[in-house]
Amino acid sequence: MDLELQNGYHSGFSHLEDSDKRGKWRDIVLAYRTLGVVFGGLVTSPLYVYPSMNLESPTEEDYLGIYSIIFWTLTLIGVVKYVCIALNADDHGEGGTFALYSLLCRHTNIGILPSKRIGADLSHSNRLISSESQSRLGKFLEHSITARRIVLFIAMLGVCMLIGDGILTPAISVLSAMDGLRGPFPSVHKSAVEALSAVILIVLFLLQKFGTSRVSFLFSPIMGAWTFTTPIIGVYSFLRYYPGIFKTLSPHYIVSFFLRKGKTGWQLLGGTVLCITGAEAMFADLGHFNKRSIQIAFLFSIYPSLVLTYAGQTAYLIKHLDDHRDGFFKFVPDPVYWPMFIIATLAAIVASQSLISATFSVIKQSVVLDYFPRVKVVHTSQYKEGEVYSPETNYILMFLCVAVILGFGDGNSIGNAFGVVVILVMLITTILLTLVMIIIWRTPLILAGLYFVPFLILEGTYVSAVFTKFVEGGWLPFGVSVILASIMFGWYHGRQRKLEYEMTNKITLECLGDLLGRSDIQRVPGLCFFYSNIQDGLTPILGHYIQNMRSLHKVTIFTTLRYLLVAKVAPNERIIIRRFGLDGIYGCVVQYGYADSLAEEDDFVTQVINSLRTYIEMNSDRLSPLSISEEISQLEAAKSGGVVHVRGKTRFHIGKETRWFDRILLGFYEFLHSNCRSSLPTLAVPLQQRMEIGMLYEA
């Protein structure tokens, strides 16, 4: 008996050991894959950090101070803030500013409108509201509509800053890589480099519609080659030019730098902040990988690579004080110049692709969550849900990227613009993460303050420095981000007000039965598909329609289209039918995945009719007053009598009594709503069968 138990123990232990080994290898493989997706912007930053600084007659002490600032920025923001703290603040595995806001919404009632909480776990929500242990900050946010609006706008602004990153990263990365041509060929004019960079980006954007599946397997090897070759050159460089470079790890070099340079040193922070470009992607892309894989990749490859590369660059510049305008390619030894130029160009393209794909993903998520006006989103892969393409977004990005290159010209001006985006999104993350610490994690205020105050000082100092470059380029990404955030906020507010009205004024089955029982309401021949977004009740447009038309079709199917985060929905799960207990009235939910194309279905009506016929024949709950044969005959007769597809087209009535806040935002929402795509996907429905019913909602 003891021997059997011992054998069983060893067997179970070895099984756990094997499982741990498999988990570790999976994390290592994922860490390798993150190189081509997550860290493209961060690891290519040595291309443009030094060229972005306005250094005038720099000295050895200046470069030592700058390297000390770069090292501690990478350590404090990259390692301490993101790797050790922020990656723990996920929302069901998802990261980014939206995830932090979602986390706050799920644990406290800070939604702008009551409708935001419809369908939520009310018992859990009520428990949190009535809890005496709720923090004072949480109670303040719950009771202050102004504070809630500010928090929402801050979260949206953070998301839009990432989109601004998608404009500037391709521009500065490709332009900095192409600038390497001017080293061996000094006669190449700057305008030629700009034109070549613009052409590369135009080609890159035009290829987006084909997806990245066929070439994505090259992304990690390319970025791996860059990540592991640049530090080798860095080690060679500092051993040759300045072996004592790591004495600058002492913070007193930072203090002496600012004491010596004063205001000029503070303004140079606008360039050094670019060393942490792309660090937010570690948090934002958390949902595509996992926490451990990102931590492994950063701590064991990205962080050492950047520290050694910047050490080599700085050591070279100490011996060549005026070469900072080409701070990367100048320190590359001649024998490996062209291989490094090729790797740098490919790495810049991969970094650009990563940010472009991330922008498409952010737009798609925002549309699905109803935070952004509907734009066309195409899935370029049937196997990867995250691989999407948005034509409108793509061409706007292309125009802005090319305009940035041709308008700003050199990396210095683009760097001024880039710094605003880089540091503001990090400051927003710091603010939201502090709210999560206090409200959700219940971190003692002293410990939360030990996080918030140092990073507020660090990032606030950077913000003040980059805003001195506001008129020199910083206005562009900030303006684009504010415009996008305003669009998101206006759209979200309008959609939530509309949902609130519909849930308050929804038509119940009892009310529908009373309406149909009136003598002046006729049941006319035909089959009607009545589209609605409400699954718990019926849209108020139905009451508006019946009272004005004085009729309803013999067979009416209330249809809801439900998007699922899967590739394809199985045919037997595509259509869900239910009876409403009224003669000829049914409910239908059509589920589709991101790789399903409803426009390519053979016959949408036939599919629903067949599903409804099967439901009638197999369902034993006799809620219908008709027999099975009579019900099927009624269905066939209705189809023969003609099919019509009815959807509501609602608008807000903004009267004199409407509050000024709603007057502005709802008016803006109506403008956006009238210029965006239809909420219904293309169903291959003939135009002559479509009908739109207009209705005014009281604002």
From TrEMBL:
A single Gene Ontology CC term: membrane
UniProt keyword list: Ion transport, Membrane, Potassium, Potassium transport, Transmembrane, Transmembrane helix, Transport
Domain K+ potassium transporter integral membrane: 31-510
GO molecular function: potassium ion transmembrane transporter activity
UniProt topology in membrane: Multi-pass membrane protein
Primary localization: membrane
Function: Potassium transporter.
Name under which the protein is recorded: Potassium transporter
Record organism: Elaeis guineensis var. tenera
Lineage of producing organism: Eukaryota, Viridiplantae, Streptophyta, Embryophyta, Tracheophyta
